[in-house]
Amino acid sequence: MGFREDFLWGGAVAAHQCEGAWQEGGKGISCSDVETAGDNVTGAPRRLTDGVVEGEDYPNHVGVDFYHRYKEDVALFAEMGFKAFRTSIAWTRIFPRGDEEKPNEEGLKFYDDLFDECHKYGIEPVITLSHFELPWALAKEYGGFRNRKAIDMFVKFAKVCFERYQHKVKYWMTFNEINNQADVTQHNLIQEGAVLLKEGDDAEYLMYLSAHHELVASALAVKAAHEINPDLQVGCMIGMNGVYPASPKPEDVMNALGAMHQKYWYVEVHARGHYPRHILKKFERKGYDFITEEDKKILAEGKVDYIGFSYYMSFATQYQGRNEKTFDYVPEDFVRNTYLKASDWGWQIDPLGLRWCLNWFNDRFELPMMIVENGFGAYDKKEADGTVDDQYRIDYLKEHIQAMRDAVDYDGVDLLGYTMWSPIDIVSASTGEYDKRYGFIYVDYNNKHEGDFSRSKKKSFDWYKHVIETNGQEL
Ligand code: BGP
């Protein structure tokens, strides 16, 4: 009973949310570099600007200065006993515009040094290739993934990374939360780096088109990795938040199924190597005919080795008649689940939902899985003596780890590891805030850009250390 002996305990970040140094080491501009901070007072969302505009606030330019401080941070991860550290390789450090002939050696060297630093402590790097970090030039000049040329650029980037780091990195993922495009809202399309919307664009069509190109690019990358080195394991990365029916009313149940279809069909393509029938039916209905015979072959040959996913919350949906017959996903149908508490950002806390999601994947695909994000964003308070009592974070993580342990013990789930989000405070992806904190390690920096980036341990630091020491037996 319990987790496997070589269970990968650790934490996860993304390059653009922590590194900063946005113009150092030959790095090019990425989409996240031209994304403003949201306004947490007015609730205004993040915006993508047309290049860097003077006077705007771009938190990703500095991140938490990980680029210069990674040695200190990795040492702290090692002190907690990390076995794994998940981060992304910023695409623009390797190919600053995306379309260069040759990679940028200084960027490659940075990740060599980072991975060596991890291995010094026996920490295995787990790497995402594209975590909302599409080169800005690729988005602006080529139209991002609406353009098939982006497939070649991504595959070239992936191959350079596999070849260079094959003896330092075993576990890879292609596109972070590839399904976050499913909302068909401008922000999500942009955040995934898939496509920039122009006046008159058909957002839904472009969402499916760009997602298809990403899935083809991902399959080609999986195949290339196995050819370069059969030991490499390449997974997908799905943003997974189970959708429950708000009641047992059959229409609500069907509505929830429709939402699950819409949000999670991507994993079927990644894991089974072909599109699910309900999506093909939708494409037929809408007249979308971009899947070629060659694409079908590529998808079948590039199935993932494992399923990586993030889990933060669950949703509930109530049928309100907007999607009669199709039961297609309607974000407005999502309602509060009164059985659950929520974070300050309204994210509904549901540990058992994690076990439900593990089972959902397990029943369909019978693949190994890795939980590559799970965590609790909160307004932490630093006391006068420098301590942070983040018991709420401990409670959240404890209950989720318990739920995943039950999934291993009782449901037969094959779980490779757990990299919580995020071991150190970093910039929030959805809001661009510094004050939405997830870490065991406090970073002295806030929304008003005050602070010196110094690091200190929160109460949860020692707690997680003990969890790892006991391989998750004592929570
Ligand atoms: C996921 C993203 C991460 C991360 C996390 C927490 O969707 O993959 O990049 O940031 O969510 O979200 P946030 O930072 O918005 O609180």
Structure commentary:
With 475 residues, the protein is of the alpha/beta class. It has 14 helices and 13 strands. The protein has one domain (8-470): Glycosidases (TIM Barrel), CATH 3.20.20. It is 39% helix and 13% strand. The protein has an eight-stranded parallel β-barrel, surrounded by five helices. A three-stranded mixed sheet has the order 6-8-9, with helices on one face. Helix 2 runs parallel beside helix 4 and helix 12 runs parallel beside helix 13 (391-411). The mean pLDDT is 95. 6-O-phosphono-beta-D-galactopyranose (BGP) binds at residues 14, 17, 176-177, 239, 310, 373, 377, 421, 428-431, 436.
Q: Which architecture per CATH?
A: Alpha-Beta Barrel
Kindly state the number of beta strands.
13
CATH superfamily heading: Glycosidases
* Distance between the ends: 15 Å
Task: Determine the fraction of residues in helical runs and give it as a percent range.
Answer: 25-40%
SSE series: EHHEHHEHHEHHEEHHHEEEHEHEEEH
Mass-distribution shape: globular
Q: What's the CATH topology name?
A: TIM Barrel
Q: What's the mean pLDDT score?
A: 95
Uncertain spans: none
Q: Tell me the domain tally.
A: 1
- How large a portion of the residues is in β-strands, by DSSP E? 5-15%
The small molecules bound here are: 6-O-phosphono-beta-D-galactopyranose
Strands of the widest sheet, in order across it, are 1-2-3-4-5-7-10-11
Q: How would you characterize the largest beta sheet?
A: 8 strands, parallel, barrel
